[in-house]
Amino acid sequence: MKFLGFNVSSKLTGFSLCLMVGILLWACSGQDKKQENTLPETKICSMIFIDKSVSVNVDKGFANEKYTKIINDLVEKNIRGKGDKLIVYFIHENTAKAKVAEVISRTEMDETDGANANDSEALKTEFSLDLSREKSIFKQLVVKQLNARNASSSNENTDILASLELIDKEAARGYDVKVYYLSDMVESMKGEHRRDFHKNPPVDDAAAVGWAREDASNLKASLNNLTSIQVFVAKPFEPTASTRVNNPAVSAYWERLFAELGVSTEVEEL
User: What keywords is this UniProt entry annotated with (predicted)?
Assistant: First the structure.
């Protein structure tokens, strides 16, 4: 007779047949376990957009301290090991071409299967130390970009909408994308179908929502991968800033825009 594709003699004893079944089940379970252990983990891509337009000054004081802490926290949380990525862009007139840094974690945990308790613990400690050193380098790199000055004429405009296509491309690559805007979120671009919130800000939430719907309808066709991204906004304003300085309708515009573009989680302000 045949058993699972193998020829089995009818003279096999019950014990032999049970033994063969046991071996086959053990082999199958071993394969399943191996496949389970080798399944790829979704990697995180942290995208940091640092506003370098004239309306945002982070040289010192509250904004610098706030942004430095956010950078340190996000690197600590999102860089977990080999494959996790961090990209930094400047926000100004030419945001789409303003990538200033991109780094990928290379720290990898060595295989602990078969290692005794002491060796396993040593490998974990070594991984933790290596990852900590790598995170420290990443933090310094981003903070350096935070403190870099933009003295060119590109600081006269703010193209935040250009970041959307950049985000969409990373999400299309299969990353778990987390987006951090270190910005006042005041879009300021000239031209048809563009927004200039410096000259013509939304006066209330109703206006902001209307503009967001209109802009989203023009953008949807080219943005197909934003559903699962997470968006975090950190404005440079102190908690006591007036609504004239920190216009809540601007926040309403971005919250509605991302929702209209299919982002499933709410924008979180840090």
Answer: Signal
Query: pLDDT tens digits for 2-61?
Result: 334 434 444 444 444 444 444 444 444 444 443 333 335 899 999 999 999 988 988 879
pTM for the full model?
0.83
CA distance 142 to 52: 14
Token pair listed for 240: 């006591």
Q: How far apart are CA 26 and CA 20, in angstroms?
A: 10
